[in-house]
Amino acid sequence: MKQQHACSVAHSAVREQVYLVFPNDLNANDTVFGGMIMAQMDRLCAVVADRHAGGVTVTVSVDAVHFMAPARRGDVLMMHAAVNRAWHSSMEVGCKVEAEAVGGGPRRHILSAYFTFVALDADGCPRPVPALAPETADEKRRYTEADLRRQARLQHAEQLKQLRAQARA
Ligand SMILES: CC(C)(COP(=O)(O)OP(=O)(O)OC[C@H]1O[C@@H](n2cnc3c(N)ncnc32)[C@H](O)[C@@H]1OP(=O)(O)O)[C@@H](O)C(=O)NCCC(=O)NCCS
To answer: How far away, in angstroms, is 129 Cα from ligand 1 center?
Structure first.
């Protein structure tokens, strides 16, 4: 396989993706339905991961989803997503969502989450992706932290696999 050049974060990142909240986005509590926001995040992160990988990727895991503040009717959601780190065939994409009231005003942090995507080849098998070359201090911090999260994710997935195998035995 041809050696791939490392890509910058800016090569694939998306900032200030806006989504205007309408009444059909609300739950019974009159705040924005969380599942709708998560779907928007997954779509945005998929675009970022596809750009970094230069082809099709799929979501394999999502972690650290915590809704910190509600978004409301008429709010504008602002979403930002960027690759934090790439390994062999997988990448972690960080996504942050903020909300701004209609007409402007201070931004509220609604939630952040980490999405892991895997690049697939034409046969649907994992394929290598370019490394990430972090440049700014924030990018380097996220790059280092992403490896800790990966270790926890994979350890957790392995532990679950073993428990289920034991339960079946
Ligand atoms: C993504 C998928 C092809 C990976 O298959 P797999 O058999 O686990 O493949 P591998 O063991 O070779 O792992 C591939 C990569 O995924 C990573 N991975 C696998 N399971 C993971 C998990 N639970 N969390 C994070 N990363 C994971 C591995 O660490 C590996 O990364 P690396 O190559 O960078 O080291 C497979 O799990 C799949 O098809 N999942 C469904 C994806 C999908 O359809 N998503 C859309 C939602 S319906």
So the answer is: 13
User: What are the beta bridge partners of residue 109?
Assistant: 98
The number of the ligand 1 atom at minimal distance from the alpha carbon of 87 is 34
Ligand 1 nearest-atom number relative to CA 58:
45
Rounded to two decimals, what is the model's pTM?
Answer: 0.94
- Closest-lying ligand 1 atom to the alpha carbon of residue 61: 24
| Domain ranges (residues) in the chain | 14-168
Each residue's pLDDT tens digit, 84-123: 999 999 999 999 999 999 888 899 999 999 999 999 999 9
Residues 58 and 118 sit within 8 Å (Cβ to Cβ):
yes
CATH of domain 14-168: 3.10.129.10
Which residue's alpha carbon is nearest to atom 20 within ligand 1? 60
Backbone angles phi, psi at 158, to 5 degrees: -65, -40
